[in-house]
Amino acid sequence: MKAEINRHIDVLDGVRALAVGFVVWFHFWQQSWLTPSAGFRGSLSAWFGLEGFGLERFVRHGYQFVDMLILLSAFCNFYPYARSILLEEPWPDTRTFYLKRAARILPSYYLSLGVMAAVLFAEGMSADGFFWKDLFAHIFCIAPFFPDTCLGTNFSGALWTVQIEVLYYILLPWIARLFRRQPVLTCTALWGCGLASANGILIYKADMIRAMENHMFTFAGCYANGMLLCMLYITLKKQQGENRYTRLAATVLFLCAVRHLHGMMGLLGGEDRLLVQLGQRFELSLTFCGILMGLFFAGRWAVRIFSGRIMRFIAAISYNLYIWHQYLAVKCKGYRIPFWEGDTPPNMLGDRLWMGKYQILIIVVSLAVAAVLTYGVEKPAAAFLFKRTGVKSREGL
Fold first, then answer.
1. 1 or 72, which is more confident?
2. Residue 54: is its pLDDT beyond 80?
3. Between the chain's N and C termini, which has fewer beta carbons within 10 Å?
4. End-to-end alpha-carbon separation of the chain, Å?
C-alpha cells in the first residue's frame, strides 16, 4: 500500500523547533558561558562509534543550524511547486505566494525594527549617520550586502537571515519555473553559484570572511538541495510503500547523518572556524538532507518525537523567537538583569549562580515575548492581510 502524500509533513515542526532551539542556545551560551556536559560515554557507545558524542559541539556551534533553517525554507516553499510537477496539481499562483510570504514575515520583522529603532533613539544612538544607513538597509533587506551594516549593525544580529530569505522569496517563483523546464540546468547553476562564490571568498577575500560568509549567493547550493529533496521525497512516497525495512533503513540514515554532523562540527574549533564553516556549507546541506530524509521515512518514533505538542508550540513561535532572542539576551545583560556589580561580567568571573539565573531569565523572557508577538501580532496581522487580499490562509507546511 502506497503512503499518502500529505501537504503537511509532521516531523518538520520538530526539525524547525530544534534548529531554532540550537541557534538560540548558541546565542545564549555566548552570553552566559553555561556549557552542557551531557553525552555518550563508555565502552558500549565507543563500540558503536559514539565515544565523545555530546551536546557541547551542537551548542558551541549552534549557528550551523541556520543552514538547516534555510534548507527547510527552500524545501517548504518549493514543496507546492514540486507537487505540481510530480502530482500534476495546479501551479501555485505567484501573487498568492508573495502575499502569503509577506503576511507571514513582514509584520513581525518591521515591528522588531520599529521597537529596536525606538530603543536606539532613547539611548542616543540615532545621532550617528550610520544609524540611518543601518536602518534603511534593514528596511529594504539589503544589510548583508554591506560590510558595515552586516558586522556593525545596532539591530538584532539575527535579522540578516530574514533578509536573505526575503530575497530568496522574491526569486523563488521564477527559479521554480526554470526548474520545471530545465531541472538539471537550474540545479547545476545554483550549485555552481554556491560553490563558486564560497571558494571565491575563501581564495580572494579570506580577510573579509566575517562580512561575506553569509552572503546570499553562498547559500545557492543549499536552496538547490532543498528543492531536490522535495522531488526525492514525493517520488519515493509515490513509488515505494513503507514497511519495517524502509523504516529501519531511514532510521540508520538519520543516525549516520547526525553522527556525521557531529563530526563536521568538531572541525570548527580552530582559529579558522569561519573559513571551515564556509568551505563545508555544501556538505553541511547534504548532511541535513540526510537527516530529513531519515526522519521522513523513519516511522512512528520520529512522528511522536518531532511532532509532539511542545515541538509544535516552539515551531509556531519560532519566527519571533529567532528574531528576538539574541537582542533580548544582550539587552538583559547590558542592563544588568539579573543585577551584577563591577566592570567584568559575572560569566567571565565564573559566577555560576548568576549564570544560572541569567540563563533561566532569558529563556523565559524570550519564549514569553515570542509567544505574545506570535499570537498577538504575527497571526492576527496575517489573518487581516489574508482577508483584505482575499488570499486563503491555509498552507501545507
1. 72
2. no
3. N
4. 24
